Amino acid sequence: MSSGIRVGTRGSALALTQTTTVAERVAELAGRDYELVRIRTEGDVLKGPLSQMGGTGVFVVALREALLDGRCDLAVHSLKDLPTTPAPGLRVAAVPERADTRDALCARDGLTLATLPDGARVGTGSPRRAAQLRAARPGLEVVDIRGNVDTRLGRVAGAVDGGVGDLDAVVLAAAGLHRLGREAAITEYIDPAVMLPAPGQGALAVEFRTDGEEDGLGAALAAYDHAETRAAVTAERAVLLRLEAGCSAPIGALGTVQGDTLTLEAVVASLDGRHLLRRSRSAPNEGPEAAARLGVSLAEELLEAGAARIAPLSV
Questions:
Q1: What is the structure's pLDDT at 7?
Q2: Which of 81, 100, 103, 168 does the annotation list as catalytic?
Q3: Is 150 among the residues known to form the active site?
Q4: What backbone torsions phi and psi does residue 115 show, to the nearest 5 degrees?
């Protein structure tokens, strides 16, 4: 075998789990061994609301630096953490087949979004989730939280032994819960008709240097790329890019491929959940460039309908 592939990852349990899955498959395709290179990011060190820390990019910068300076050959990200603007010298060489895109409610006593009592305290660190929660259930108290998956689950009464238990429920990504084997905590998969996910949710991104040595690695990454997932997330992220929105803006988007058709839904909400704009469009699924055009056209429709008046956008 050739030398091992050095795969950069954050050190959280979720990051290590999903990076290991990627590394094993890429190594198999390339006929090489692999090793994980743990990189501590700013998002792992700083406290406070993500929207006040510089957005999702705080989880990405250190990994990208490690990739560019040669400490690792690949970097694996949760795609929803990846800024929409590409980094000079890097490219997303593979987007593996996506996991569950939905958000999941993890509540005490098996409660669902419909059965949580008015006044129930529901935790999330996402303005997108918070706004859609408030729209669906105005009587809930939405609490801003941070921390890894187990820390957040520990905030739910009775969910984890020794947890704080000061909340009635939390909302987390279903994909992350499944990757960590925590799906038993899920009391409801929230229908996208109620809560559209973040652009790229449930998908991973493998970044590679544009001038990186090949040695079979480029071909392995190309084989690992999943065309339908790539099209869907490209459309979703194009919405975000055109709206010039970061993680402080309550924006959800979901692309789905059925046959030769790519359908894209998106929502823009006010932070208090009182105003929501939701639109959808479909187009032939003709690759990433066509998917990006679909995302831009849907974003333009949202802007024409007044998205910039109800949400904190930069347009």
A1: 97
A2: 81
A3: no
A4: -100, -5
